[in-house]
Specification:
Layout (H helix, E strand, L loop, with lengths): L3 E5 L2 H12 L4 E9 L1 H7 L2 E8 L13 H9 L13 H10 L2 H13 L1 H8 L2 H12 L4 H13 L9 H13 L16 E6 L6 H15 L4 E5 L5 H14 L3 E3 L3 H10 L5 E5 L8 H14 L3 E7 L4 H11 L6 E5 L9 H9 L3 E5 L8 E3 L2 H8 L8
Parallel strand pairs: 4-7, 4-8, 5-6, 5-7, 8-9, 9-10
Antiparallel strand pairs: 1-3, 2-3, 10-11
Amino acid sequence: MQTKTFRAGSMQAALDLVRHDLGPDAAVLQARNVRAGLLGWMLGSHQVEVVASAHVNVPSRMPQRTHATQAQAIAAPPASLPPAHEQDYGAKFRHDLKGQLPDLESLVENLCRSEVKSASHELPESLFRLFTDLIDAELNEDLARELIDRVAGGLRRGELDDPLLLKARLARMVEDEINVTGPLQLPSGKARLVALVGPTGVGKTTTIAKLAANYRLREKRRVGLITVDTYRIAAVDQLRTYADIIDLPMEVVSTPREMREAVARLRDLDLVLMDTAGRSPRDEVRIQELKSMLSEARPDEVHLVLSSVTGSKSLAKTAQRFCSVGATCLLLTKLDEATGLGNLLHLIRESQLPLSYLTDGQNVPDDIRPAERREVARMVLGMEDRER
């Protein structure tokens, strides 16, 4: 039996090719949805593939007529028969195919629903495994496809079969998109004022305690604290407890005037860390209050503290909102609680802010470290443990 395969952008176009090449009596043996090569898979495009033959008779899928239905057909008035001008071969082909179209359309629809599964047969195995690793790391599908496309575009002959090389190239690509600030730099003879801002519940107060303890106990620097989180009494008490344990001066302020006075009293220290109340990015009034307080304090750095367990879209929108108050860098918390860190790549791209510190636990002064580009890239891609 001789068969021929046809591909087109739609089922109708494929059937037209069959009819033109093999004639109206050709039989459709198989139809399926296929990707249009590697580039087509990346772009999400597909084609319909039809296998047909002019040398085989395929039994009709229509139910067999009983004697009763045949008698009814004979007794039916002439108006129920196809008009005479439709009795040519083309009309007969369309008439016979009509009963098969629902089955063919259903087949194509089912194949379209299993795009990722069928993609495993279109992509080389090494690239497909890399793609699934990115999805497991919680990168969104569009971003994962973009990265795979960039990796595939720069490959030389023989490199496709080296999974370690592919991962290393992918890690370098992501690393190139990440900027870091390094640890806080404290010039001698001048107090460095650093403010931490962000939404509620991301760990600002605990992070300030970690930074204060490290610079006071390990770096032997003179450190002071300012808190404007007077909306939560527990937050003030928590920070005061840390200040008493570490033996740090602490100022509690609630107005711009008190802020100016507090900064003046602590101007002889090496480092002043300022804790702010959590703000919803959708609360315009509170955001403006925070902006006003920061304008009085005039901090040297404003670290936007965000939780890594938040979704990528929420992270990007929050960062965009807090950039309006003068955020200069990102500080990421709760890495130990996240199931994957692929969401951070979208945040880094959208915010265009460098990373300062990473935290992965509640222990003070531990569980905090300066961000490093290579480490962050590998964590984003799911290639490295997030805890140290």
